[in-house]
Design brief:
35% of the residues lie in helices and 21% in strands. Helix 2 (22-38) packs across helix 11. The chain has a 5-stranded antiparallel sheet, with helices on both faces. It has 3 domains: 2-88, 3-Layer(aba) Sandwich (Rossmann fold); 98-113 and 182-298, 2-Layer Sandwich (D-amino Acid Aminotransferase, Chain A, domain 1), CATH 3.30.470; 118-178, Dna Ligase, domain 1 (2-Layer Sandwich), CATH 3.30.1490. The radius of gyration is 19 Å and the shape is globular. It is of the alpha+beta class and 305 residues long.
Length: 305
């Protein structure tokens, strides 16, 4: 115990914040805080929505359990670098790019990774032509939100524009994405290790906010029943996707499969959830790592710059 305390010093677990994912972040942070304390680490809750960032100078390390804007987009990472405080997860650039689904896709396409067909929407878009080109279902989503906030599944012809109007209430760029309906999966990254693949089987039409955090009937299969060759191929692709954005530390790469078994990388999470429903802890357990050990391992990777 004393060795752990000496190594890490006083640790702030950042949780809450001001984004639309505040409640999820509070749940993640509480879980991480309890896990670190159980390992004898001098860990403390810190909510930047109610405490001045300058107060973080009293801590030697920061575990980022913030999700969404100002927590996962490079903002808090930049502030911590200015203060010289090591923090968990990817750095400023990778966090900022990873929060932007549009620019993430551009980079992945540039390095030859498969992504679902997509188009950016605005008031002048030809919505009928996009529906015809992509077919239904298709998905409309803000480019800079997480936890499926503001995501709409379009299944009725002629309703794409309505979905766009609803999605843009969440602000920022809005994209439409061709529906890839053969299965939803995710891959956790922990340092240089790629964790077992998780298949997600929601009882809802897709893996929305409700399925992620509020329902108990979402099924998770880990390891996913894919062939060893396909598993190795996708894990290598996920690691490439993670590193293409300059990401280090830990994170999660989500992908979809179509009916023919072809996969498409969807997005990256640079501060994944750490709740009872969360996917990285589930994958880590399959790899033989407890939640407490996972939290300590992530904290060990804290860096500054």
């Amino acid at each position: 115990m004393s060795e752990i305390k000496r190594d890490f010093g006083k640790v702030a677990v950042l949780m809450g914040g001001t984004s639309g994912e505040r409640e999820v972040s509070l749940n993640s942070g509480k879980g991480v805080l309890a896990a670190l304390k159980s390992q004898g680490i001098d860990a403390h809750a810190f909510d930047p929505a109610s405490e001045p960032l300058d107060a973080l100078k009293a801590f030697q390390r920061v575990f980022i359990a913030l999700h969404g804007g100002y927590g996962e987009d490079g903002s808090i990472q930049g502030a911590l670098e200015i203060m010289g405080i090591p923090y968990t997860g990817p750095g400023v650039m990778a966090s900022a790019i990873g929060m932007d689904k549009f620019r993430t896709k551009l980079i992945w396409q540039a390095v030859g990774l498969p992504v679902p067909e997509y188009v950016m929407l605005d008031e002048g878009s030809d919505f009928a032509a996009i529906e015809k080109r992509f077919g239904l279902p298709l998905f409309v989503k803000p480019a800079n939100e997480g936890s499926s906030i503001g995501v709409f599944m379009v299944t009725v012809p002629g309703t794409l524009k309505n979905a766009f109007e609803s999605a843009r209430k969440h602000g920022g760029l809005i994209m439409a994405e061709k529906g890839v309906m053969g299965g939803e999966y995710t891959v956790g990254i922990l340092g240089e290790e790629v964790l077992p693949i998780v298949k997600i089987e929601p009882a809802t039409a897709f893996y929305d906010y409700e399925a992620k955090y509020l329902r108990d009937d979402t099924r998770y299969i880990c390891p996913a029943s894919l062939s060893p060759a396909k598993t190795a191929e996708i894990q290598a692709g996920a690691k490439k996707a993670f590193q293409a954005l300059g990401a280090t530390g830990w994170g999660r790469v989500d992908f979809l499969m179509d009916g023919d078994g072809k996969y498409y990388f969807l997005e990256i999470n640079t501060a994944p959830g750490m709740t009872s429903h969360s996917l990285v802890p589930m994958s880590a357990r399959q790899a033989g790592m407890s939640f407490e050990a996972l939290c300590v391992k992530i904290l060990e990777g804290a860096h500054c710059g």
